[in-house]
Amino acid sequence: MSTRPTLHDFIDDELLRAPMTLDLVVDAVIDRWRQRMPTRSRQDGDPVRVLQHKRGDLMDAALAHLRSAAQAELQRVLGGPAAGATAAAPPVTVRAALSLIDEDDVVVDIEIARCTETVKLKAEVELRELQTYTSALVNDPNVSRDTNPFRPEGFVRALWQGVQQLPLSRAVMAAFLREAAEPLADALRRTYAAAWQRLDEQGVTPATHRTIVVGGVGGMGGLSAMGSLGKGGLGGWASESARYRPPQDLNSLRDSMSAAFDALAAPPLPAMSPSLAAAPRPSGRATGATSPDPQLIELLARLFEEIQADVGLAPDTVALLQRLQPTALRVALRDPSLLDTYDHPLWRFIDQLTHDIAISAPALRLRLLGLGRNLIDHLASADARETQGFSWALARLDAARRHVQAQAITAAAADIDRLQRIANADVPLSTRTMPLDIGSLDTVPADLMTEPAAAQLAAAALRMAGGLAPGVELRAYLQGEWRALVALWQDDGHELALLREPAAERLWALRQAALTRLQAEGLARPLRVRSLVRRAADKVLRSL
């Protein structure tokens, strides 16, 4: 009798088949280049000939990257808390020479992102189907996390590692990824389908998960329990509609819970201190003369349960939120406004604290966790009727961010000075030293200005009016990875910017043209603080 396969067995099996997938992609690119040669420089020679002669080097590097990435994913999925602790440990950082990223440099990032998105869109059903089986391999019955070691981005990065072994310019390498997108999507669609079918034949029962079924663009959708999607042929599960649709406020969520709550036997109330049990109740919400509102207690418990189950939170952050939960309940019993808005200082404090911890540098993480514990302990000892305490705690977090920002700017002084010299050298003499006669500009008729000149003038005006202020947080796709960045400096002309990636303790210098190009492609956007309570409220509402 055959034994049930494990995730390790699945990885070994798929790695044996990966060369065939990559071979199909390389063959397709060669065929397309034979029909239409990519734009190349004299140093590139004949890209088709280079690709044929160096094919072995490309395959070896791509497979090595795919193998190491799959093994790392295996450790992440099966490692549990230890793996998370290892990931959070401060890495050994070596300061690399700061290089200036220009518009041409981000072309590769754009092609990597496009290639990955092409595969995800074309193979979305097969991907979701395979994930139900890989989740079953690691005993994740609710598909609460991504357990597929061979996601599209892994194959794309493997191809990029391989093509970098070829003596070609970056422009031709980017052209390779552009041509490889459709063939890779077709090949992986078949690969994913064959993979879950083999697992099914080996006796693996797919996991099930809850998902939103959207009937069309703008449809309200519904909640259903789903298992294998490939067999059922569910298409168009993704849509432009918002993923989260929380209730208008938490009061309406409590009202939605009331019918279901009243239909069940009243659950036993959690153990409470004598002082908390005797706390005054919000008017109109009490169930007895001396007991607190059980629906309120149930609501807060469900909200914190969903918040702490958020896959984006590290275990040490979850421990902080568990420490804060009794204080939140005490505040809710005394301050009904906690349920009136998601912008209550308590919820904002939770969101900001978890956000700051998530993007903090590894060397500063323990210090920030300690600050969070101190603030929570102070809030726990304060009067629950004084909501100003949470505003004070938010101010302390803001002060900590400003302190870290000032230290980072001081540490980067040499790099800022270097970039300032580059900016001074790049600016034409006439625009930096000669005064502008505004009156003379009015004498130039608008219809005589060429369209490119008008566009350049408009772009320059936008740069002068805005700019990247220090402390602004961005999420940008650089060198094949999504990165959380914090702006440190930008020159007066808004042409050069220095940004810090706290998680990697690395600096990035970008020209404005590169940043604008990434933004136009949707690969650079403001990094916003997530509202954890909104997401939690949405999940609670869907579970009713």
What brief labels describe this structure?
22 helices; 59% helix; 544 residues
Taken from the alpha-carbon principal axes, the silhouette is flat
Q: Number of helical runs?
A: 22
Q: What percentage of residues falls in helices of 4 or more residues?
A: 55-70%
Overall pLDDT metric:
78
> Approximately how much beta-strand content do the residues carry?
5-15%
Total number of beta strands: 8
Q: Ranges with pLDDT <50 over ≥5 residues?
A: 80-94, 209-242, 263-267, 269-290, 429-465
List the strand order in the largest sheet. 1-7-6-5-4-8
Tell me the count of domains: 3
Please outline the major beta sheet.
6 strands, mixed
Q: Give the oligomeric state.
A: single chain
- H/E series: HHHHEHHHHEEHHHHHHHHHHHHEEEEHEH
Ends distance: 43 Å
Describe the model.
The chain is built from 22 helices and eight strands. The protein has 544 residues and is of the alpha+beta class. The chain has three domains: 7-97 and 105-206, no CATH class; 250-388, no CATH class; 412-526, no CATH class. The strands form two sheets. The protein has a six-stranded mixed beta sheet with strand order 1-7-6-5-4-8, sandwiched between helices. Helix 5 (106-122) runs antiparallel to helix 7 and helix 6 (124-137) packs across helix 8. The protein is flat, with a radius of gyration of 28 Å. The two termini are 43 Å apart. Residues 80-94, 209-242, 263-267, 269-290 and 429-465 have low confidence and may be disordered.
